[in-house]
Amino acid sequence: MHRSHNCGELNIKNINQEVVLSGWVQNIRDLGGMIFIDLRDRYGITQLTVDINQNENLFQKAKNIGREFVLKINGIVQERTNKNKKINTGEIEIIVNKINILSESETPPFTIEENTDGGEEMRLKHRYLDLRRKTMSENIILRHKIAQETRNFLIRNNFLEIETPFLIKSTPEGARDFVVPSRLNKGFFYALPQSPQTFKQLLMVAGFDRYFQLVKCFRDEDFRADRQPEFTQIDCEMSFVEEEDIYSVFSQYVKNIIKEIGGEEIKEIPKMTFAESIDLYGSDKPDLRFDLKIKNIDSICKNKGFNVFDKSENISALCLKGNSGISRKILDSLTEFVKSPQIGGSGLIYIKCNLDGSLKSSIDKFFNESDLKNIQNMCDAKKDDIIFIICGGYKKTKQIIGDLRIELIKRFQIEPKNKFAPVWITDFPLFDFDKEKQQLHAMHHPFTAPKNEDVEKLNTAPEEAIAQAYDIVLNGQEIGGGSIRIFDRKTQNKIFELLGLSENEIKSKFGFLLEAFKYGAPPHGGIAFGFDRICAIMSNEKSIRDVIAFPKNNSGKDLMIDSPSLIDDDQLKDLNIKLSE
Amino acid sequence: MHRSHNCGELNIKNINQEVVLSGWVQNIRDLGGMIFIDLRDRYGITQLTVDINQNENLFQKAKNIGREFVLKINGIVQERTNKNKKINTGEIEIIVNKINILSESETPPFTIEENTDGGEEMRLKHRYLDLRRKTMSENIILRHKIAQETRNFLIRNNFLEIETPFLIKSTPEGARDFVVPSRLNKGFFYALPQSPQTFKQLLMVAGFDRYFQLVKCFRDEDFRADRQPEFTQIDCEMSFVEEEDIYSVFSQYVKNIIKEIGGEEIKEIPKMTFAESIDLYGSDKPDLRFDLKIKNIDSICKNKGFNVFDKSENISALCLKGNSGISRKILDSLTEFVKSPQIGGSGLIYIKCNLDGSLKSSIDKFFNESDLKNIQNMCDAKKDDIIFIICGGYKKTKQIIGDLRIELIKRFQIEPKNKFAPVWITDFPLFDFDKEKQQLHAMHHPFTAPKNEDVEKLNTAPEEAIAQAYDIVLNGQEIGGGSIRIFDRKTQNKIFELLGLSENEIKSKFGFLLEAFKYGAPPHGGIAFGFDRICAIMSNEKSIRDVIAFPKNNSGKDLMIDSPSLIDDDQLKDLNIKLSE
Known about the structure:
The structure is a homodimer.
Chain A: E1 18-30, E2 34-41, E3 44-51, H1 56-63, E4 70-79, E5 92-103, H2 120-125, H3 127-130, H4 134-156, E6 160-161, E7 179-181, E8 189-191, H5 197-206, E9 210-218, E10 230-239, H6 243-260, E11 271-273, H7 274-281, E12 295-296, H8 298-301, H9 307-310, E13 314-320, H10 328-339, E14 349-353, E15 359-361, H11 369-378, E16 386-392, H12 394-411, E17 422-426, E18 431-434, E19 439-442, H13 457-460, E20 469-474, E21 477-484, H14 489-498, H15 503-516, E22 524-530, H16 531-538, H17 569-574, E23 577-579
Parallel strand pairs in A: 3-5, 6-9, 11-17
Antiparallel strand pairs in A: 1-2, 1-4, 2-3, 4-5, 7-8, 9-10, 10-22, 12-13, 13-16, 14-15, 14-16, 17-20, 18-19, 20-21, 21-22
Helix pairs in contact in A: 4-6, 4-16, 7-12, 14-15
């Protein structure tokens, strides 16, 4: 072993001990007759001192050491005169009597410090150096802890960890599959799983009852910000359960993670229907750390002669506290935000509730003082608040005002009420109707069961059917989602038909699942959490890239190993494929 | 929730309780006025009774229930008159007062019993039914336990679980890679990892110190018995270690698994060099549950006028206890075994040490009584033992007699001395020399460090260099292997050159690793265990297929989901590839 202790554990109790440490040079300071070296490893930093008066040869050797060299040193622990109370090892230093340079280092292409000077591309290319930075290594260690907390929780609750295959079958639904040509079965392909969905259902048919897996999944998507072609899922499934059982077990799970990792106690995780969430927050991923609810003010705004309101399906308002004084310029820029292509609004109406009690709005022409007062009351607006109003079709209006809500929270740096605000979103529609193609799509996935009372609607008005599907949202980000599954052939077949699959397609893609349902399938349901996303939220990172050891960039490239790459013609020939011209 | 209890937990303490159970019908017996149903779930089996006198409607309903139906029943726990002491629930039964048929079942294609009538193909096709069988579900549950024991041990020892990527770069070395065409980078390919080797080394360069992962790996091999194209590895790496540190940590690990899962205490895991193992057992995977050591008897056999011996590089003998009386027929079939193409021997010599003290051999013509006595003594053979002799070139002789050793153990059902016999095999050669191609190959992999004292040999006689490489063998099967790694550019480059890689190949395949070694790489080493293999040994299964939930068959096909399969022309087009004619 190249060390007796690590660089994070020596303290005042070790005074006068002979120790061997190994690690990286974080910093080296030559004060003339004295050299100080900060030696770093995963556990901490320990200060080394080399004194010219004690050992001149050693001193000369130390002079040639640079940052990021790997050293093995022998020395004696000594109390420091200049104590650093901020770190564990801050009361001691090591008087070095032997230095073994295990590895030299060239000057790294960026500084290995909290605030590095390296751009993201450079840091991704030398990821092993970026991971030496404290925040990055702490993120990876936190990820390890969250994984263990997750496993421990699930195992305590009788879940079995069972591995499902990676080389499966392509069943393109929604996102594209990555495929793998088979050499031994020429012309045939495996596919990498987008999720172990059908396998976990078959595990329920097999009788395993409670299954989980922390598992890599793959989606060949057109890359968007903060998506990775491979990502990690906490995949869970249970038999003999109904929606309430899922809420009960996994509320405990989320509370447990927030407590053990985030240090906060959550009493209960609230539930909100999809419809309610859209209505109140303009999103199915409401960030409940902030109050800021949307009010429907249709009832008091219509038939006042303002044509824009009168022809609107919905009129929604948001009350921003304590900002009645905002400038024309800010109002204009908020209007511009609403009208930007990615938001797609046509304008923004405001009512300022001035400090003197007067009201000033952009619709003064159409509404008198008393009308505006009514709106003010309906919005619970007080003096110094400002009310924003969006109107139009229901869905669009809610989306716009939901986006505006998030923008206001950011721009006005509204203080969150609490650090973590999880919420279950329930009662999702079963289908999404694509008007252009006149085709239903599964909102969640085609294995989701409709509400028992809505089964009949599959025959009459499928687009109105509500699903036994749910998401769990934390701080405005979806961290998990799932459903109670269909477990009978008849309903499953019906859903496949409604989704426009031909009998042949059903058979070739999902025949095995329908076959399995012949032999006694239990009622079952489950959930999958986005592990990367949970880690990012708990690490306070915006991007999941910062909680993945070796991520790809936004074009799906691994800049470090330079992948994807060309392969040999021999390999292509073996696989019986050619590149198209 | 569809149950108040599971089918394995009710006992005499629950008498008179009202319970709800859900599960599968294992068995149903109609005794005229009484129907008995064995209801099964993952936890056990509970007996249900339906009495025609208590509820005739219910009785009629029960009559229509078949095997593998999924039921939810309400009932009262009652003491049994006919107790079954073999199972937990054997003292009670449930007097059913309500039956809800959750799912019906067609007659399964094979019986869901310990000894099933289903052939392997049928069972793989309906894997979810095969997994309902007790041995199979117990295997999967044991695998779960071994995974948890493994993680708990490693985490106690400060290892961090860190995920490495699955979409990496093709660097064909040894086995073939599975590749994944990239849609967004046309003409480029990812590869699936054969192991996370370079990534775990980069994690050491990053400073993570102790890493592990239970991870799927992929090898596109020509299928052989009991190989899977995807398999699970317990992958570990440590920094600042030497060989002895690896032995110390991972001996603890293996002992821990054998104790916690196998219930046996192992005091110490012995070490044996590769050369010694070949010499004594004719294999680098010696099964030490059996004594049966090979003796070199060259010294007393040569120059006796027997040309076959005289021209042999090696003469090896095995002494089989208590079988001097075996028939001519058995001797002939052993000779045939030795001469079979897969063994490749040219003949088998024997010396019978008869019960009356006389010796009878197939070389009586060349050896007198006293010569044979000498051989007997050298082999520690007693009355009633039989000695088998193989001779020829050293390597081939050892392989043949090693194979014969295993065959004798099987055929004569030799009792093992102990249930588990782990052993470290050390000091592997660094290279294997391919005489045909006049090319060195890495015996382990190209990142393996030579022994410190053999570094010079890389320049003079690389084929003689010994590696800091080791395997761990359990009951004659390799369950893990690893090495201390090279951590400097110069040596790593030298090895790549010796392996015949051009400068360009080195750069394009391993440039990132050599680049990383510029910036302070720590000394490091590691090991990877075959998780499937460990599970198979601990479950007493011959095939790893029996410890994998959804395995592929020996042609790499998943018979259940029918994969690999054809993919759409659109998908091929998107990926910019075509099938060759």
